[in-house]
Amino acid sequence: MDIDVVTVGETMVSFQPSPEGPLAYSAGVTWSVAGAESNVAIGLTRMGKRARWISRLGADPFGDIIARMLAGEGVDTALVIRDPAAPTGVFFREYRGYGEPHFYYYRRGSAASRLAPADFRDEWLEGARHLHVTGITPALSASASELVLLLMHKARDRGMTISFDPNLRRKLWDEQTARATLLEMIPLCDVFLPGMEEADFLVGEKPLEECGPSFLRMGPQVVALKMGAEGSAGWVQGHTARAAAFAVPPPVDCTGAGDAFAAGFLSVFLDQCDRSRPDTPRDLLQPALERGNMLGALVTRHRRDWEGLPTLQELEQIRAGVRRAQR
Ligand code: KDG
């Protein structure tokens, strides 16, 4: 297999005031590249995995920035579609000096929102072991939603494993459609990766010990619940694991922490798991949660989405307690 993980979704150029401050009073901005699926692809690449990211980008400079940046990070972007008829989505991110940043999206009608089943090519999944999808793509448009479901079915038909992070974005769709669509996707995945808010949104508030099993009953082999400062919990049939949060100084920006967790978790899961070895997820659960927590925590030490993701070598140094300056 040439590719460990294929992922499909919207990546945007994100603008943030520089110097930092309220957007309404800022004269300058810096830009970065952000998208849940490409964040996971970058995280996996840094963990030594091969990731392919597919989307539609406008035939505009913002599309150029994204294509160049992701290719520069080692992500396979060869199958990205450039759309001359629609712009690349952008958003503005405002750091308010307290709490988490505010997001203002300009993505309606974007090139990625025009993703549709007609875009699908068998080569998207060729040579790949695993598909990762999020709940953001189906929120972009009806056609993008159909594409995600088609992709999940195609991947299953090929015997690929699938992970799904609901990544609830309330600004993008109404609650009823969001809940119904996300619940339709869960039975199609092997690894379900919700956060606490998303779990409550989908099945109502439950004690922790009931939360994982309620999702396992829908079909996935593995459920990993992200609990921020409380670490994470994981379930496979008949087995539960808990991993404490990886200790870091207070976060400066939690954006992308869930994507970093997914990359860390999947990088371990992928090392051993395939459908022909159904007993392996049990052994993988603890180390996968721990790696997920580590990446999730480290990325919160930096502003923006993925820039603070460590490489495998850095992880090993952190684990070994190496503190001396590297020069
Ligand atoms: O997970 C972080 C990303 O989701 C965010 O930076 C951009 O894809 C994005 C979104 O839709 O919010």
How would you explain this protein's 3D organization?
The chain has 327 residues and is α/β, with parallel strands linked by helices. The chain is built from ten helices and 14 strands. A hairpin with a 5-residue loop joins strand 12 and strand 13 (232-236). Helix 1 packs across helix 8 and helix 8 (257-272) packs antiparallel against helix 9 (280-299). The chain is globular and about 55 Å long. It binds 2-keto-3-deoxygluconate (KDG). 2-keto-3-deoxygluconate binds next to helix 1. Residues 34-36, 39, 136, 169, 255-256, 259, 305 line the site of 2-keto-3-deoxygluconate (KDG).
Fold topology:
Elements: E1 3-8, E2 12-17, E3 29-34, H1 36-46, E4 51-54, E5 56-58, H2 61-72, E6 81-83, E7 90-94, E8 102-106, E9 128-134, H3 137-140, H4 142-157, E10 161-165, H5 175-185, E11 191-192, H6 196-203, H7 208-216, E12 222-226, E13 232-236, E14 239-243, H8 257-272, H9 280-299, H10 312-319
Parallel strand pairs: 1-4, 1-9, 2-7, 5-6, 9-10, 10-11, 11-12
Antiparallel strand pairs: 2-3, 7-8, 12-13, 13-14
2-keto-3-deoxygluconate is lined by residues 34-36, 39, 136, 169, 255-256, 259, 305.
